[in-house]
Design brief:
The chain has 11 helices and 8 strands. By secondary structure, it is α/β, with parallel strands linked by helices. It has a single domain, classed as TIM Barrel. Helix 6 links the parallel strand 5 and strand 6. Helix 5 packs parallel to helix 6 and helix 10 packs parallel to helix 11.
């Protein structure tokens, strides 16, 4: 089922989960075992990030095949920075041959030495346009409730988002956030800019404090004071339980505000996401 069919009809469970590829293919089975835990929740799809270092390639396609063969709708991520148009063309055709219908189009991280990169693509909107011109894939893109870390401000970031939508992107998946008001303000700003595609909320259950410190160092994410306090005072198990409770409240409020969908960043560990969904579905 394509993104536009998932988010533009009346199905009630617009829930998806993000996983990342294990470093070695021998660990694929462990990931599939984790995914089996959520199969009964009937997720709309599984989102598969790029391989180590943000590189899209044969390993992403192979794992996407494995996940699909185990009964899941799959949305691989694909980055364009440092990739040639021939490389992208080959891999989107590989995905289509597997019967995969959706893809998340991203720019990707610029390497320390950008002179080593192929210059066929510079921005994500160029990748979106290329995919739409050369395939029947339904394309999702990333959104940033507090702005991309490289953008001067939120308005500049939304202008760039509009370019991706104008090139054919059909859904926006947001970066994680802990303050729902940031998400609501983002929706208002995006809609005022004339963007009307579904905006899916990115939710990351708190697993440990290192996870939060790492994420907030890489992106613009406001961490509420109550979370900061628990990070320093709670033991690991207490913090994980707090993270579940916090996400339950966050998701319940989002659902009450008719959020277009919930997208869980699992870090390949399903227990917290399962606990959350048992309380909100």
């Amino acid at each position: 089922m394509k993104l536009r069919e998932i988010y533009n009809n009346n199905i009630s469970k617009k829930i998806s989960f993000e996983v990342f590829p294990p470093k070695e293919a021998v660990n694929y089975r462990k990931l599939i075992s984790e995914l089996e835990k959520i199969k009964k929740l009937n997720p709309a799809f599984i989102s598969l990030t790029c391989g180590a270092g943000g590189n899209s390639g044969s390993s992403t396609v192979e794992l996407a095949r494995v996940i699909k063969e185990n009964g899941f709708n799959i949305m691989p991520h694909f980055t364009c920075v440092c990739n040639s148009s021939n490389f992208v063309f080959k891999h989107i055709k590989d995905l289509e041959e597997l019967g995969i219908e959706n893809i998340l189009a991203l720019r990707g991280d610029i390497p320390i030495d950008p002179t080593l990169c192929c210059k066929d693509f510079k921005y994500a909107n160029e990748l979106v346009e290329f995919i739409k011109e050369n395939s029947s894939l339904s394309v999702g893109v990333a959104g940033y409730p507090e702005g991309h870390i490289e953008a001067e401000n939120l308005q500049e970031d939304i202008r760039n988002l509009k370019k991706k939508i104008d090139c054919g992107a059909e859904a926006i998946f947001t970066q994680l956030f802990f303050d729902n008001n940031k998400f609501y303000s983002y929706i208002d700003a995006v809609r005022k800019y004339g963007i009307n595609v579904p905006i899916i909320a990115g939710i990351m259950p708190i697993l440990n404090k290192q996870q939060i410190y790492k994420m907030t160092a890489l992106a613009k994410i406001t961490v509420p004071q109550i979370i900061l306090e628990k990070l320093e005072t709670y033991q690991p198990e207490e913090l994980q339980n707090f993270g579940i409770e916090y996400a339950i409240r966050q998701c319940e409020e989002l659902i009450s505000e008719n959020v277009d969908g919930l997208h869980f960043f699992t870090l390949n560990k399903m227990e917290s996401s399962i606990a959350i969904l048992k309380n909100i579905l």
